[in-house]
């Protein structure tokens, strides 16, 4: 006779068979965002209202650029996972599949656009540095 603990009997029995993994991902990303977002708001707030040269100078530095990329990527992945959980709870059939695809596509599109804009800002910063003053 094999002895199974309650945990062993419950493992893999959830609807998606990955509930613990999803829960820990959401918890870890929420904690990361709790530190990243206020720091990003301070950096963004200081750049807000500056002329183009000031904004480019701010986001051409490594810390603000990496912070911005982290906020966008972690935030959009957190959004996609959370929205997927809600959709799986309340939608059924083809609508469910379509909504999940839409949410993931939207999050990846936002990530791509934000990283492209950030790359453009940093490239403009390099051009400003090369120009004679």
UniProtKB/TrEMBL annotation:
Q: A Gene Ontology MF term for this entry?
A: metal ion binding
**Is Phosphoprotein set as a keyword in this record?**
no
Cross-referenced Gene3D superfamilies, in alphabetical order?
Fumarate reductase/succinate dehydrogenase, transmembrane subunit
- Which InterPro entries does the record match to this protein? SQR/QFR_C/D, SuccDH_FuR_B_TM-su
- Using the record, list the residue span of the signal peptide; answer none if the entry has no such feature: none
Pfam families (UniProt xref): Sdh_cyt
Q: Which cofactor is essential here?
A: heme
Q: Supply the name of the protein.
A: Succinate dehydrogenase
Keyword Iron listed: yes
Native source species:
Rhodobacter xanthinilyticus
Which UniProt keywords are given for this protein, alphabetically ordered? Heme, Iron, Membrane, Metal-binding, Transmembrane, Transmembrane helix
Function statement? Membrane-anchoring subunit of succinate dehydrogenase (SDH).
**Any one GO cellular component localisation term in the record:** membrane
> This protein's superkingdom?
Bacteria
Q: Which compartments does it reside in?
A: Membrane
Residue intervals passing through the bilayer: 22-43, 63-80, 101-128
């Amino acid at each position: 006779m094999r002895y199974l603990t309650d945990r062993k009997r419950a493992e893999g029995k959830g609807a998606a068979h990955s509930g613990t993994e999803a829960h820990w991902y959401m918890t870890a990303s929420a904690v990361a965002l709790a530190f990243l977002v206020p720091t990003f708001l301070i950096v963004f707030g200081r750049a807000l209202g500056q002329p183009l040269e000031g904004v480019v100078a701010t986001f051409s530095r490594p810390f603000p650029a990496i912070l911005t990329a982290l906020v966008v990527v972690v935030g959009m992945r957190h959004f996609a996972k959370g929205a997927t959980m809600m959709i799986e709870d309340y939608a059924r059939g083809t609508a469910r599949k379509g909504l999940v695809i839409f949410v993931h596509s939207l999050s990846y599109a936002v990530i791509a656009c934000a990283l492209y804009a950030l790359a453009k800002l940093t490239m403009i910063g390099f051009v400003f540095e090369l120009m004679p003053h």
